[in-house]
Design brief:
It contains eight helices and 17 strands. The protein is an alpha/beta fold. It folds into three domains: 58 residues, Alpha-Beta Plaits (2-Layer Sandwich); 70 residues, Met-10+ protein-like domains (GMP Synthetase, Chain A, domain 3, 2-Layer Sandwich); 168 residues, 3-Layer(aba) Sandwich (Rossmann fold), CATH 3.40.50.150. It has a seven-stranded mixed sheet with strand order 13-12-11-14-15-17-16. The chain has a four-stranded antiparallel sheet with strand order 2-3-1-4. A hairpin with a 2-residue loop joins strand 2 and strand 3. The longest helix has 13 residues.
Length: 328
């Protein structure tokens, strides 16, 4: 049956799918199809599709109905998936149990359901979990996004699927042969795509387990020869890479400002710093911009290239990013 579809190159398909899903434009009653290098994503309202996308008619097969968690509960079935682990965030025990049961009974390929039991805490950025379904010892999984895959142990490291689109936005800016430095690298969701695009990438993290996974993920994605993974405090490592970096990621939004002097020391004659921050909605970018200028000027000229809200973090608080070019 011919239905309206967004047609994108296959390599751009995952980002397009996520953008269309966020706008609630995907037609779930028909299958997404690959054909001769193109991906065809059925949409419910072609008039609402952004002009950047190409909308065509395509013969997309009807999707067989599958039972999803939302079909089995009478409340909003909110969850995230990291590989074959589902993450929920429910304070009410009965609601958490009902949602976990629905996830297990649904068609989702999930073997473990976890409920957040604490915020991310400590220098190693880990959190406590309540195991609602599956084996609590089996928190290791493999997550895939934008053509890369990441082995991760949720009990020992921090990883958020919510930042996939933002990571892809930054990774697309990387160029072959540039020097990219992630100051708080985790299991490598910035480092691996940088290296995949041909950059020489360095990732540093305090969490020894995260660094082990970063090395494993570099091998898993075939980029180990372009990745250096270092366990330690980036302030102690930076001297080895002074004036080296063309691109620097500072994804530690609660305290990145404490590390700006280190970022400036890493920067070469010209570099882009991706600075993540959490600020009040009344002035989400001002404090970060002031802090960057204080650290970099007058040794560098500072140009704010992008001011971007990544997501809402808490009531009246935003997780934002500044893409900043510094030029000596």
């Amino acid at each position: 049956m011919s239905v309206p579809c967004v047609r994108v190159a296959r390599e751009d398909g995952e980002r397009a799918r996520q953008d269309l899903a966020a706008a609630e434009l995907i037609d779930d009653t028909h299958e997404i199809e690959h054909d001769e290098g193109w991906l065809y994503i059925p949409v419910v309202d072609p008039a609402a599709v952004p002009d950047a996308f190409d909308v065509v008619e395509h013969d997309a097969p009807t999707r067989e109905t599958q039972t999803m968690p939302a079909d089995l509960v009478d409340f909003d079935a909110s969850y995230e998936r990291i590989g074959d682990v589902a993450i929920v965030d429910e304070d009410d025990a009965k609601r958490a149990r009902a949602l976990a049961d629905a996830i297990v009974e649904s068609a989702l390929p999930v073997h473990t359901v976890l409920n957040r039991a604490s915020k991310v805490k400590g220098d190693l950025r880990v959190r406590d979990w309540e195991v609602l379904a599956g084996d609590g010892a089996a928190m290791e999984t493999v997550h895939r996004e934008y053509g890369c895959e990441y082995a991760v142990d949720l009990g020992a490291v921090y990883f958020s699927p919510r930042l996939a689109t933002e990571r892809h936005r930054v990774a697309e800016q990387a160029e072959a042969d540039e020097h990219a430095f992630d100051m708080f690298a985790g299991v490598g969701p910035f480092v691996i795509p940088f290296a995949d695009r041909g950059a020489e990438a360095v990732g540093v993290d305090l969490n020894e387990t995260a660094v082990e996974y970063l090395r494993e993920n570099a091998r898993r994605n075939g980029v180990a020869e372009r990745v250096t993974a270092i366990q330690g405090d980036v302030r102690e490592v930076a001297g080895e890479y002074a004036d080296w970096a063309d691109r620097i990621v500072m994804n530690l939004p609660h305290s990145a400002d404490d590390f700006l002097d280190t970022a400036v020391a890493l920067a070469g004659d010209e570099a882009v710093i991706h600075y993540y921050d959490i600020q009040h909605e009344d002035d989400p970018y001002g404090p970060g911009e002031l802090a960057i200028r204080a650290a970099a000027e007058p040794a560098y000229d500072v140009t704010i290239e992008t001011r971007h809200t990544v997501r809402s973090y808490a009531p009246h608080e935003l997780n934002v990013v500044l893409d900043v070019r510094v030029t000596r």
